[in-house]
């Protein structure tokens, strides 16, 4: 199975394992239309401000290919961080730092990447 819905199941499990409450809209918001398209997930800080845009792709698509698409969403929402994921691979990017490279994340790192921000 290689549809985006299956990837989202894997992404949801990774977020839950990392401490995100998917049922709390103060923490996670799904599918928000922005000026540049539809952001798949928004991860929020304690104040409810958008901390990260998570762009979901089908399992058979390299999530890194969505880097510029996600940048547009993050810029419109003033989110400093981006995660690109197909459910199996997760890439973390602090796009506000032009010289910072995109880093490959393992599931357990999702929580650590935001622990100080939450």
What does this structure look like?
- With 118 residues, this protein is an alpha+beta fold.
- The chain is built from three helices and six strands.
- A six-stranded mixed β-sheet has the order 1-2-3-4-5-6, with helices on both faces.
- The longest helix has 14 residues.
- It is globular, with a radius of gyration of 13 Å.
N-to-C CA distance: 34 Å
Question: Tally of extended strands?
Answer: 6
Q: What coarse outline follows from CA principal-axis ratios?
A: globular
Give the mean pLDDT.
Answer: 83
Strands side by side in the biggest sheet: 1-2-3-4-5-6
Secondary-structure blueprint:
Blueprint: H1 4-17, E1 28-34, E2 37-44, E3 50-56, H2 67-77, E4 81-85, E5 90-94, E6 103-105, H3 107-114
Parallel strand pairs: 3-4
Antiparallel strand pairs: 1-2, 2-3, 4-5, 5-6
What brief labels describe this structure?
118 residues, globular, alpha+beta, tt1808, chain A, 6 strands, 30% strand, 6-stranded mixed sheet
């Amino acid at each position: 199975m290689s549809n985006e819905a299956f990837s989202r199941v894997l992404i949801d499990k990774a977020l839950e394992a990392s401490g995100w409450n998917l049922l709390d809209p103060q923490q996670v918001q799904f599918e928000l239309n922005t000026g540049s398209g539809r952001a798949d997930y928004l991860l929020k800080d304690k104040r409810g401000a958008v901390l990260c845009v998570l762009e979901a792709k089908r399992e058979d698509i390299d999530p890194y290919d969505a880097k510029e698409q996600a940048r547009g969403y993050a810029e419109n929402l003033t989110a400093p961080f981006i995660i690109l994921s197909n459910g199996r691979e997760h890439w973390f990017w602090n796009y506000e730092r032009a010289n910072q490279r995109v880093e490959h994340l393992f599931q357990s790192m999702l929580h650590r990447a935001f622990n100080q921000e939450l």
